[in-house]
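#random but structural
TW: two for the price of one
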Amino acid sequence: RCNASAALGGRVVRGVRSYPTERSLLLGTVKIAGATVPYVSHAEAVPFLGIPISFNLGWGPTVTKALDIAKTRGRQIERSLASPTQALRMIQTVIKPAVAYLMCVAPFGPADLDTLDACIARTVRKCWKLPRGMPTRAILAGAEEGGVGLESLRVDLAHETSAALTRALRDQGRLGLVT
């Protein structure tokens, strides 16, 4: 039990037990190496190795970050003076690996992948000066099929998840043990 006037912001409530919330207990009380550790609620996302993770395992912030990466880096490539071929190479070496890094942790659904593919295709349309109505599937088609030759993120997802599974199974430590 705590002091009712302190927990309720100075208001005194008679006959009511007032227990402190997690936030009031932790605000400014935990210190590591002299620095105060901020309180984070279970719904807030915390970056861990560059990947936003929330304690309730909601993957929305991770998908949002992937979309933000695709949009911001796509705009930077659009504004550059790169040729269309150079822009395509930058998309394949800058945007797709950054998004694929997030795919190792968060479960990206088909709708999320379609949204990310559409965002990347929008960048390709602007860099290659293609019409706005050109379908994303046509952009993601191979060059021999009349497309630009950019693979879908579904291929990257399959590659990343199979590579992570293979690494886990081949691990010599306890990660590789199958029970």
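TW: number two ↓
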Amino acid sequence: GNLLAVHVAFLLMMAGLIYLIYRIGGMVSTDRMGAWAALIYVVVSWSFSPGQMWAAQPEWPMTFFAALGIFLWLYFQDRPIWGFLLSGLCMGIAVMGKPPAVWTFMVIPSISMLQVLAKEKPWSLWLVHNFLAGIMFLVPLGVFTLYFASQGILSEWYFYGWSYNIDYYMAVLSPERRLA
């Protein structure tokens, strides 16, 4: 294994993530707000120990692909429909990196619902855009499922992808604490 290559790849992903946060902040508010959001992210995320920072944690790709999905959703509002497909695909990849990212996918219908309520987007577009993003969101799950089923290890994938998190990892937290 080439640990230097892993570190460089994660460093590039982190730099891309900081840029995406800046752009998302600028899209929903001002460039100054985007810069503040990116700066706060840098300070908070780099406050861990070096061992934690340079570990190949699944949170980095999950956060990168979730931010990329949100950025694409915002960027392609008045552009061709394939941007919504890419946005949903990125969110699906984020979930494959770490299943709790499924909650970040809810940002997309929330953004577009606010646009409908503000009369910036008709309901029909809300349905089409969210349907397309939702379909593409499921594509990575389908690809992973088909691959692991073809290898005869679907039960192991289910265990490590879902059951382990619920039965072992989350079992140390009470239901009240999980919701907090």
